[in-house]
Amino acid sequence: xxxxxxxxxxxxxxxxxxxxxxxxxxxxxxxxxxxxxxxxxxxxxxxxxxxxxxxxxxxxxxxxxxxxxxxxxxxxxxxxxxxxxxxxxxxxxxxxxxxxxxxxxxxxxxxxxxxxxxxxxxxxxxxxxxxxxxxxxxxxxxxxxxxxxxxxxxxxxxxxxxxxxxxxxxxxxxxxxxxxxxxxxxxxxxxxxxxxxxxxxxxxxxxxxxxxxxxxxxxxxxxxxxxxxxxxxxxxxxxxxxxxxxxxxxxxxxxxxxxxxxxxxxxxxxxxxxxxxxxxxxxxxxxxxxxxxxxxxxxxxxxxxxxxxxxxxxxxxxxxxxxxxxxxxxxxxxxxxxxxxxxxxxxxxxxxxx
Length: 354
Ligand code: NAD
Ligand code: IPM
Ligand code: MN
Prior knowledge:
With about 350 residues, the protein is of the alpha/beta class. The protein has two domains: about 1-95 and about 270-354, Isopropylmalate Dehydrogenase (3-Layer(aba) Sandwich), CATH 3.40.718.10; about 105-125 and about 160-260, 3-Layer(aba) Sandwich (Isopropylmalate Dehydrogenase), CATH 3.40.718.10. Helix content is about 40%, strand content about 15%. It has eleven helices and twelve strands. The strands form two sheets. It has a ten-stranded mixed beta sheet with strand order 2-1-3-12-11-4-5-10-8-9, with helices on both faces. α1 (about 15-30) runs parallel beside α11 (about 345-350), α5 (about 160-180) packs across α6 and α7 (about 225-235) runs parallel beside α8 (about 245-260). The protein is globular and about 70 Å long. The structure holds nicotinamide-adenine-dinucleotide (NAD), 3-isopropylmalic acid and manganese (II) ion (MN). Nicotinamide-adenine-dinucleotide (NAD) binds near residues 73, 286, 294 and 295. 3-isopropylmalic acid (IPM) binds near residues 281 and 283. This is Homoisocitrate dehydrogenase. Keywords: Oxidoreductase. Belongs to the isocitrate and isopropylmalate dehydrogenases family. GO terms for molecular function: isocitrate dehydrogenase (NAD+) activity.
């Protein structure tokens, strides 16, 4: 068996400061893994004359998956390629508090659910236009308020295909089944704006309902997205697998991360039929760049999801256990968790417990 090739695209601003230490940890856990470095952003512009050079695209293609830091702008074309170029249709964002995480909530132990986010459609990628282009709709009698095409302004397009919504719904059901086998309730919760967008979010509701019904052994609940946001804060223990559109998942994942203790703690994995990439929920944290104090937990836990994807479940467990133990002890914590450790010191503490 050829050992798996993994492409690493570190990204912009402070992101490389969590990516490279994570690669070191993964190397230690699974020495046979082979990593290749895909250059992007400013660094690639200097070396290759492009923010997303052909060389990097080829490395991403040759690899079985990619570890991505975050884009602060310059690396955005790489992120777009990892999503639409590699057809990574669902974004899995686990939300789980553990002892030592500095949560602002009174009972943070109730946060233990997973967001399943559409990774390709909805308001993404941006498709916007001039209001005047909607002239054909201006006289439509089915519109309560026709678009004011005689005024200056713009519109945005939201796309929801049956195929993609069904894929996301099925991924949520598969995950709920897997979690049920581990003792979770096996409950899929949909959040959407079906009251206002019947043809897109209403259709999403129909598809998710139907998919869950086909699975038989799963529970189902649905809430309007605004109410779901409240429930996420007030009764997080009622949630197991939460299925959301691209934009709703984007927003609620950051909110949920805030509930368990911040963006430094929230990992994610993006999966398609033939490829996957792993990135933290957070961005490039430009305010922390160069300071050496960005919390690497989200990136390390994204690395654990990568190990699971490649079939190294035992090593993924060891990594998660070591991270949990550092938090449980509470002696070496980064500033966002109330400590004074540098990124390097935190990773070293994890490394000692591997
Ligand atoms: P951000 O997530 O980068 O930062 C928000 C806040 O959280 C900042 O105060 C930051 O310091 C803090 N934070 C983030 N990660 C942290 C960590 N690991 N440890 C400690 N603190 C952390 O979001 P932003 O500031 O809104 O965006 C910055 C850039 O990142 C923007 O260009 C945005 O588009 C981009 N972004 C990229 C991705 C991605 O590539 N997947 C995701 C989100 C945002
Ligand atoms: C995320 C980010 C991205 C998104 C940005 C960088 C385009 O916020 O991965 O959550 O909105 O999907
Ligand atoms: Mn986001």
